[in-house]
Design a protein that fits this description.
alpha+beta, 4-stranded antiparallel sheet
């Protein structure tokens, strides 16, 4: 007797509700993995782009900030209130105060003589620092910049020099200026009794008339430390202070000085014999390192080159470029993973150049 196998009854709804087969499950997993790999790659690329953009933004901001900071200080270089050095007065023949040596910014104020003071006032920017121990761990292929001037903002302390500080006072009184020996200015820690232009009694150092403004001496030394940081040493409490970090990510700084060595009449600048004080326009830019007094006396502009470096290396990038830092220096290639950019600006020394301009 033949038996017929009975199949279980499966409704149409049950057939439609069946799960995935193993093959279908594997295909679904494979598709999901492809999608996840695509999303992961997209996330990694976006993250890398954002990180690279952040690195570039920091690099640009560091470079621009360094340039703007130096530019702001250089704009005041050579500002001495109402005082004008004789060698910058086009009406004076053979002046006696022409700077003869580049000053040592770290020399103690108590050791200054008349020649030292003339040098300090007549050379407001320089590249050598003498005995300054505040410049330490100097980065290779970088310059030092000294900027000197009187405090540009009217001092809050009135006509008194803050205790322990070195200050500057210029006389406005013709009786003092023309007195023999002349008292045209005071640079030091005491003796600030020079008068305003209202003096009428002819007395030297008279206390019965108002005294002219006393301003603190500002002397800043800038350099790049070998950990890629722009440093600044300030002149406070009668001495150059230990350098403090200003801006990170600065790999090099090179400085060129715009020298006004030809007058408007085409003749060389001269301080003896014929009066020819130049015209306030730089005739040549030099990178002397160190510059001498004859060059710095005639400096009317400064060109700054700053090489900014990203703080972090970029994966897969090799810096094989060279960087022009003025007429005398080219840096690189560095062959590392850090991106770099050169920032350059030319700053007119408003005070020295303005005193040379022909009306």
């Amino acid at each position: 007797m033949n038996r017929v196998a009975m199949k279980p009854f499966v409704s149409a709804w049950a057939r439609r509700a069946r799960g995935l087969s193993l093959i279908e499950l594997m295909i679904a997993i494979a598709i999901g993995m492809v999608i996840m790999a695509f999303l992961l790659a997209l996330y990694i690329n976006v993250t890398r782009s954002n990180n690279e953009m952040a690195r570039m933004n920091r690099q640009i901001e560091n470079g621009r900030f360094a340039i703007q900071f130096l530019q702001g200080d250089l704009a005041h270089a050579g500002f001495w209130g109402d005082y004008i050095p004789l060698f910058e007065d086009r009406n004076i023949a053979s002046p006696s105060d022409v700077p003869t040596l580049v000053p040592d910014p770290c020399e103690a104020a108590g050791a200054w003589d008349a020649v030292d003071r003339n040098n300090l006032l007549g050379i407001p920017v320089q590249d050598s620092v003498g005995t300054c121990g505040v410049v330490s761990n100097l980065q290779a292929n970088t310059d030092v910049l000294v900027v000197r001037h009187a405090e540009p903002v009217l001092p809050a302390q009135g006509n008194a020099c803050p205790a322990g500080e070195v200050c500057f006072q210029a006389s406005q009184c013709a009786n003092e200026i023309n007195f023999v020996p002349s008292r045209r200015y005071v640079l030091g820690t005491s003796g600030f009794d020079l008068e305003t232009k209202d003096c009428t009694d002819g007395a030297v150092g008279a206390t019965t008339v108002p005294t002219s403004t006393v301003r603190r001496l500002v002397s800043n030394i800038y350099y790049v430390r070998n950990d890629f940081t722009l440093m600044r040493s300030e002149y406070l409490n009668g001495a150059q202070q230990a350098a403090q970090p200003l801006i990170e990510g600065i790999e090099a700084m090179r400085v060129e000085y715009g020298i006004d060595n030809v007058g408007g009449n085409g003749a060389p600048v001269s301080y003896t014999g014929a009066i020819n004080r130049g015209d306030g326009v730089p005739d040549v830019f030099v990178s002397c390192a160190p510059c001498n007094a004859n060059q710095l006396v005639n400096a009317v502009a400064v060109r700054i080159h700053v090489l900014a470096r990203s703080l972090e290396a970029t994966p897969g990038y090799t810096d094989s470029k060279t960087y022009r830092m003025g007429n005398a220096a080219t840096l690189g290639p560095f062959n590392d993973g850090f991106k770099r950019h050169v920032f350059t600006t030319t700053v007119r020394l408003v005070n020295p150049s303005g005193r040379r301009e022909t009306p």
